[in-house]
Write a structure and sequence with these properties.
about 300 residues; globular; seven-stranded mixed beta sheet; binds zinc ion; alpha/beta; Rossmann fold; binds the ligand CC(=O)N[C@H]1[C@@H](O[C@@H]2[C@H](O)[C@H](O)[C@@H](O)[C@H](O)[C@H]2O)O[C@H](CO)[C@@H](O)[C@@H]1O; single chain
């Protein structure tokens, strides 16, 4: 299909690259219109490099502004030119990890009025008219309040955008709504590879990691291996948040993860397309039988 339009809704600067960077680079390179919406500036994040530590929320509190620049560089690396902050830069502040005092801070995303935030996203959906929307599952992929809220706002906006009773612009029905996903079998093989390689990062037991899904829940495997270098460049752009030592990376908790050019998704709404040739285990794929979609736009007329 021509005129493909993909909308991704992510919570903080860096999530777009960690979970969907190769997929975004692939579709952008293939001429699809890729729109990234980021819900906060990541103001409450930790800072890895010592020389940037002064930006931290408990020091200069300038991390949000700094991460705007990191995100711009990451978007350039993956070829994404249409990026928006939900409600405008800094409209909703990063809420911090679940249970942090910052969860209760007025103006943080976790405290956002759902319909107000969803209305902001409906405006973008009715302007861009994407066939595909990608965000997190009900648990926000790993339980972070801003990720859970990104899911809730996206699902609400998906419904409202198609509702003729919702004011402002022509209704638009997004054909396919996806969750990002990381199959546990891929995590297990990756942890084994890290142990064998003796990586400099911590290697945690997969069952102790806050994310991961059953292989059988995955509906879609995007093989974007040709774009993994772009994903690595984008990860390097998020230097306050990520340590990158390809093919590995780590967040500020120094727990190692593998950088994959193959990324996985769960179709939450819409009609799946036909199965296609997936990726082998050694590439981070789910391997045989290749009974999953291999294109987010598959099956859309
Ligand atoms: C990938 C992601 O969502 N990162 C968030 C997350 O950052 C984590 C947080 O600082 C945690 O305390 C660390 O142990 C972990 O290593 C970090 O990845 O939460 C931040 C605060 O809400 C957010 O800014 C960051 O983007
Ligand atoms: Zn995040």
């Amino acid at each position: 299909m021509t005129d493909r339009r993909l909308l991704l809704v992510h919570a903080h600067p860096d999530d777009e690259t960690i979970e969907t960077g190769a997929t975004m680079a692939k579709y952008a390179a293939e001429g699809a219109h890729v729109t990234l919406v980021t819900c906060t500036l990541g103001e409450e994040g930790e800072v890895i490099p010592e020389h940037l530590a002064h930006h931290a929320p408990d020091r200069d509190d300038t991390l949000g502004t700094y991460r705007i620049g990191e995100l711009a560089d990451a978007c350039k690396a993956i070829g994404v030119t249409d990026h928006r902050f939900l409600g405008g830069p800094g409209h909703w502040r990063d809420s911090g990890m679940m249970g942090a005092a910052s969860n209760g801070r007025p103006g943080c995303f976790w405290q956002a009025d759902l319909d107000e935030a969803a209305a902001e996203l409906v405006e973008i959906i009715r302007e861009v008219r994407p066939q595909v929307l990608v965000t997190y599952d009900e648990n926000g992929y790993y339980g972070h309040p801003d990720h859970i809220q990104a899911h809730r706002v996206s699902w609400r906006a998906f419904k409202l955008a198609a509702d003729p009773a919702h004011p402002g612009g022509e209704p638009w029905r997004v054909a396919k709504f996806y969750y990002t996903a990381m199959p546990r079998s891929v995590m297990r093989r990756s942890a084994e590879s890290m142990r064998e390689a003796g990586v400099r990062f911590l290697v945690e037991d997969v069952d102790d990691m806050p994310f991961g899904c059953r292989d059988e829940d995955v509906t879609t495997e995007i093989d974007a291996r040709p774009y993994v270098e772009a994903k690595i460049d984008a990860m390097r752009a998020h230097a306050t948040q990520l340590s990158v030592d390809p093919p590995w990376f780590a967040l500020s908790n120094d727990v190692g993860q593998q950088i994959f050019g193959v990324e996985h998704f769960i179709l939450r709404a819409g009609v799946p397309g036909p199965p296609g040739p997936g990726a082998p285990h050694e590439a981070g794929g789910l391997g045989e039988p290749y009974d999953r979609e291999t294109d987010l736009f598959a099956g859309i007329g």
